[in-house]
Design goal:
The longest helix is centred in the last third of the chain and has 27 residues. By secondary structure, this protein is of the alpha+beta class. It is about 40% helix and about 20% strand. It folds into three domains: about 210 residues, no CATH class; about 45 residues; about 60 residues, no CATH class. It starts with 6 loop residues before the first helix and ends in a 15-residue tail after the last helix.
Length: about 400
């Protein structure tokens, strides 16, 4: 029976660090140590809804390997693009990888990934979920990241090889700030939800005082009370009705717990949405074209820019970058436009700005044969060809400079 390899060994191999490492000192004075957001905020429904709205849309971004040659952009494709755009690793497709990476970034304000190479070929990129990360350096002042995992495993990786995304990057020289400012709002939402659940339970039971006529022994009062509770104040009493004779009166105690009203609850939810840069319309999926454009430009596009720069720097050498190699994350925003806006794009096809297949992609239609060739209406010409057009119009109008003697040669 073959020896089973753990996922840790599969990703990092047999990495044994024998260097003498010390904690990195940064100018800001902060300890360069990362720990995830405490308190399990992802279990809050409002946080998960906001983060999911961002992650599921950011995961639609398509990675492309391009090369800039002068003013031209040349698509490269190749193995790196296949890994980023199709399957990041044996356990995750490209969508799952980006979804997990963006979700981690939103929750912890730091996200890590490690590209795995076999010689010059990129074979996989793995997200790193750690319980702590510490920046260290060796005697040559080379920076490393020491990752600690939940199973007790540790690994030290060169920071120059680790993809690192940050959010709320301010006081710490290397790490994004923690999400502590939103903890008070989440605590208020949690308390409100618990109070609502308790109020529902309380309102479903009878609460009151039994008043008996005459003098009764203490034991008899207790026995009558226990019998009343057993018969009328249990789940078996689904009707919520109690029956008494003239010996006792039931005086109901009105219990009206104070509840947060709908407007206050909405403000609490909106506070979380604002913090993560998403609106309720985006979360619910009933956004307009303008709302989507605002969400893309303010939240998704900054993520695309950050990932493009970080993946380019960590997947290419300085020489390759100098030759124009880049990784870009882009999305076809026109797919989310209204039908009216999409129909207006036909004019761009007529003028050769878009190809027919590019327009078909906007409508989620399959490509057509020959659709990658730009077309142009015949009644349009470049400005520098207007002289030829005037000559053509003159010929069609009969205004020619032909020899008048030639007109009678056929007579």
């Amino acid at each position: 029976m073959g020896e089973k390899r753990s996922l840790f060994q599969k990703i990092f191999g047999d990495i044994r660090d024998r260097r003498v490492l010390t904690q990195l000192r940064v100018l800001s004075g902060h300890t360069p140590t990362f720990t995830p957001w405490q308190g399990r905020p992802y279990e809050a429904d409002v946080v998960r809804a906001a983060v999911d709205a961002i992650a599921r849309n950011a995961a639609k971004l398509k990675a492309k390997h391009i090369r800039r040659v002068g003013k031209e952009i040349v698509p490269v494709g190749g193995q790196i693009e296949r890994v980023l755009a199709v399957r990041a690793n044996p356990h995750m497709n490209a969508y799952d990888f980006l979804y997990k990476l963006v979700t981690t970034l939103m929750i912890d304000n730091n996200a890590w990934a490690y590209p795995l190479w076999e010689g010059p070929n990129l074979v996989a990129i793995w997200p790193i979920n750690c319980v702590m990360a510490e920046f260290v350096e060796d005697e040559t002042k080379t920076i490393y990241v020491k990752f600690y995992f939940a199973d007790g495993g540790q690994v030290v990786l060169p920071y120059s090889e680790v993809i690192h995304l940050r959010r709320h990057f301010y006081s710490n020289d290397l790490l994004g700030e923690p999400n502590q400012p939103i903890n008070a709002t989440l605590s208020a939402i949690h308390t409100t939800n618990e109070g609502l659940a308790q109020a529902i339970k309380t309102s479903a039971h009878l609460r009151g005082i039994l008043k008996y006529q005459g003098m009764l022994k203490e034991s008899d009062i207790k026995a009558n009370r226990d019998r009343f509770v057993a018969e009328y104040m249990t789940v078996q009493n689904s009707g919520g009705v109690a029956a008494l004779d003239s010996k006792a009166d039931y005086i109901e105690l009105k219990n009206q717990p104070l509840m947060v009203n709908a407007a206050q609850m909405k403000e609490l939810r909106d506070a979380v949405f604002r913090y993560f840069g998403v609106s309720e319309a985006i979360v619910m999926g009933n956004y307009t074209e303008d709302q989507w454009a605002a969400f893309y430009e303010s939240t998704i596009e900054p993520l695309a820019v950050q990932m493009s720069l970080e993946f380019t720097c960590k997947l290419f050498t300085e020489r390759e970058i100098g030759h124009g190699n880049e990784i870009v994350f882009e999305a076809n925003r026109l797919q989310y436009a209204s039908v009216r806006t999409k129909l207006g794009l036909v004019q761009l096809v007529d003028r050769g700005i878009m190809t027919p297949n590019q327009l078909a992609e906007v409508f989620n239609l399959p490509p057509v044969p020959g659709g990658d060739v730009p077309i142009r209406r015949l009644d349009t010409r470049p400005v520098d060809e207007t002289d030829d057009l005037d000559d053509l119009e003159a010929v069609e109008g009969g205004e020619t400079d032909a020899d008048p003697e030639a007109e009678g040669r056929g007579e």
